[in-house]
Amino acid sequence: MFSLPEFDLAQAVGMLSFFLGILCFYQKDDTRLKITMVIMCISHAVHFAMMGAMAACLGASLAIVRTWLSIKTSSSLVAYGFMAITLVFGLIVMERWTDMLPIAGSIIGTYAIFLLEGIKMRIAFLVGAGCWLLNNLLIGSIGLSLLESVLIVVNLTTIFRLSKDQTKKGESDLS
């Protein structure tokens, strides 16, 4: 006889993050992307805490603050400061080598969100998404594994849309 799986609140929060992530990376406007990303990172941090993935929770928690600050500034000093904080605290909470995956993804995301824009920012997000996807698969996060998989596709689609817009405007760089 078929029975429904038991409800898992942590996985439900992960599914919420899944939907927020799709909304986030569908944005063509960088500011809207960053505001939606703050909300998504809150959901991620709660999910990772519930899953017992402390390095990932740390990365998501720092991402809340760094993403909000990135709306106000694109200071390289702030970016490098967050990258250093992420690395130091990541090493402190690290329990196994795979905990470096979310730390690397967070550092790449910090660089992207502060120092890049447009297509370049989204390409860096793709690299970071690869780190997060592997982490999420390893910890068993259904929603966030789906999210990173879909975000890779959505992000590639947005890069294509931005490239198309630039071609229409006659621009040739990757900004």
Considering the chains and any ligands shown, give keywords for the structure.
mainly alpha; 175 residues; 7 helices
Structure description:
The chain is mainly α and about 180 residues long. Helix content is about 80%, strand content about 0%. The protein has helices spanning about 10-25, 30-50, 55-70, 75-95, 100-115, 120-140, 140-170. Helix 1 runs parallel beside helix 7, helix 3 (about 55-70) runs parallel beside helix 5 and helix 4 (about 75-95) packs antiparallel against helix 5. The model has no long low-confidence stretch (mean pLDDT about 90).
Brief account:
The chain is mostly helical and 175 residues long.
Order of helices and strands: HHHHHHH
Beta strand count:
0
Inertia-based shape: globular
Number of alpha- plus pi-helical segments:
7
